[in-house]
Design brief:
By secondary structure, the protein is mostly helical. The protein folds into two domains: 148 residues, no CATH class; 62 residues, no CATH class. It has seven helices and six strands; from the N terminus they run ααααααββββββα. A two-stranded antiparallel ribbon has the order 1-4. The chain has a two-stranded antiparallel sheet with strand order 2-3. A two-stranded antiparallel sheet has the order 5-6. A hairpin with a 7-residue loop joins β2 and β3. The termini are far apart. It binds zinc ion (ZN) (2 copies). The site of one zinc ion (ZN) has 8 residues, from α1.
Length: 230
């Protein structure tokens, strides 16, 4: 080693102040961990859509002139339909289509044979292909399309949770931890903080990893109640 410092490649997924992605990677470990957690959540909860009333057999089509927001059961029916794929960002996207299309693309790039699932085996397809994608995260983090993949996974996750009747969590504030900078003054983390996950009393900042307990969060909410977080 001659002490030469290579230009750091910055993560394409970090929301602000990108972290280093590591040699050969387009995304940092922290962002890839979040992406993996979203994939796992979709695979774990997709089967619950079968329990939502009115989710079979409609094919996800909407009547002409229908309001822009479908009722939750139509939303669920469309998400169960493997054909539901968005033509523009923001449109409904079936978890089945998401997993099958990305796993197919990845297998094609890697020269692997596609896997066929019997018609109707949608839960098995989502779980099976999510497992394949999760086992390929290192490979995915090296691809230029990782941000497009992450955006689709995020959109599907939020559509799925909304179809299951869950409202998106409201931010409780912004992280107040000061981060040391290599050059220049320290900066405040300021990433959005959300309430703890079910069964937990601790909320962890997704950017810096600082843990907040319930009292910390109450103080934060009080101190920042005049702010307008975006
Ligand atoms: Zn990142
Ligand atoms: Zn933080």
């Amino acid at each position: 080693m001659d002490g030469t410092v290579e230009d750091a490649v910055l993560c394409v997924l970090c929301p602000r102040e990108p972290r280093e992605a590591g040699p050969g990677h387009a995304a940092c470990t922290s962002c890839m961990t979040r992406l993996a957690a979203d994939l796992e959540l979709i695979a774990r909860r997709f089967g619950e859509l079968t329990a939502v009333p009115g989710t079979t057999g409609t094919g996800g089509r909407r009547a002409p002139g229908f309001a822009s927001k479908p009722p939750p059961n139509m939303h669920s029916a469309a998400l169960r339909d493997p054909r539901t794929a968005p033509s523009r960002p923001g449109e409904l996207h079936s978890p089945v289509h998401l997993m099958l299309s990305w796993a197919l693309e990845l297998r094609r790039l890697r020269g692997q044979k596609p896997v066929a699932y019997p018609p109707g085996a949608d839960v098995a397809a989502v779980i099976g292909e999510a497992r394949y994608l999760l086992a390929s995260m290192d490979w995915i983090s090296r691809q230029g399309w990782v941000s497009r993949f992450r955006d689709e996974v995020r959109a599907v996750r939020s559509q799925l949770l909304s179809a299951l009747g869950e409202r998106p969590p409201r931010k409780v504030g912004r992280c107040r931890r000061w981060l040391g900078a290599v050059d220049g003054p320290p900066e405040q983390c300021a990433d959005a903080l959300f309430p703890p996950r079910e069964g937990s009393r601790i909320s962890t900042c997704r950017r810096c990893g600082h843990a907040y307990d319930l009292l910390d969060m109450a103080l934060l909410l009080d101190a920042q109640s005049g702010d307008r977080p975006t």
